[in-house]
Amino acid sequence: MVDRLVNSEANARRIAMVENCFGSSGQPLAEQGRVLVGEGVLTKMCRKKPKARQFFLFNDILVYGNIVINKKKYNKQHVIPLEEVKLESLKDEGQYRNGWLICTASKSFAVYAATATEKEEWMAHIEKCIEDLLRKSGKQPPSEHAAVWVPDNEASICMHCKKTQFTVLNRRHHCRKCGSVVCGPCSSKRFVLKGQSEKPLRVCLQCYDELNRERARPPNQPAAPATTTPVKPMGDNAGSGGDSSADDDSDDDDDRPSAEEKHDEGFTSYNGVKNGYGSKVTTV
Predict the structure, then answer these.
(1) Which structural domain range is residue 33 located in?
(2) Do you know which PANTHER family this protein is assigned to (predicted)?
(3) Is the entire prediction scored with pTM above 0.85?
(4) 273: which residues sit within 8 A by CB, 6+ positions away?
């Protein structure tokens, strides 16, 4: 009983510290039964370039934000319910290694750890939390997820028409259905995508046609295989040209530190060595 009380008080202090680091810009995180499982810095692949982000794993949510002052101040808080999350490991490619996708119905993105061991720890802990949540709730894992956006510098020309060169005047845009980088004329249509927004969102012409065909299809007729854009890390073949207007990731502002900095900390677990997640972790 004493150990449980001590652990409960320690957990409450840690959650309060996370809340304080986000300040008034973040939402309250303390809830009955919520436990802070661990934390660490990961490189998030943003639209313009990779950025370092502080991640906090709770037993029911994943929280991340921009690093203003390490261990002291974060902003642009994002809270992701773990019941909505699906993970997918990424193969190593060039300098971008130890990565995986975090996919939800509203937003999907890639993150990278500093080492293979850190990647294993993060994925194992997240998967265990998701498994526990789904088992307790009796819910099924989500079947549909938002597309991962292709980074800007992976496309110097429109991925739809293969003709338009991106310049200061010809801006980049992203199809919200497949994640492709497309020009304005090739993404002039909009469609309501359930799970992402109640308002019509920008989609490329190909996805627009596919979505309309799917909407017109009889209910008992199986859907055609979805067209998706292959996901790959950001490479060195940076394209020139302007950035997309009004297509920013909500946490894609320039800030410190940059993602190119080396992570000096791995995944920190608050559950001790015998955490039941099957990986060796740094305990506190």
Answers:
(1) 2-145+252-283
(2) PLECKSTRIN HOMOLOGY DOMAIN-CONTAINING FAMILY F MEMBER 1 HOMOLOG, PLECKSTRIN HOMOLOGY DOMAIN-CONTAINING FAMILY F MEMBER 2-RELATED
(3) no
(4) 280, 281, 283
Q: Which of 130, 124, 99, 121 is nearest to 112 (CA)?
A: 99
Question: Where are any strands of DSSP class E within 70-144?
Answer: 73-81, 86-89, 99-103, 108-112
In the block, tokens 């996901």 appear at 231
Q: Are residues 92 and 195 in the same domain?
A: no
pLDDT averaged per 10 residues in sequence order, the chain, 284 residues:
63 95 94 95 91 96 95 94 95 93 94 96 96 92 88 91 92 93 95 87 94 82 49 39 47 47 69 40 36
* Phi, psi dihedrals of residue 35, rounded to the nearest 5°: -130, 135
Position 73, amino acid = K
Number of domains in the chain: 2
Same domain for 140 and 37:
yes
Looking at residue 220, which CATH number applies to its domain? 3.30.40.10
* 3-class state of residue 92 by DSSP: coil
For residues 67 and 197, membership in a common domain is answered with: no
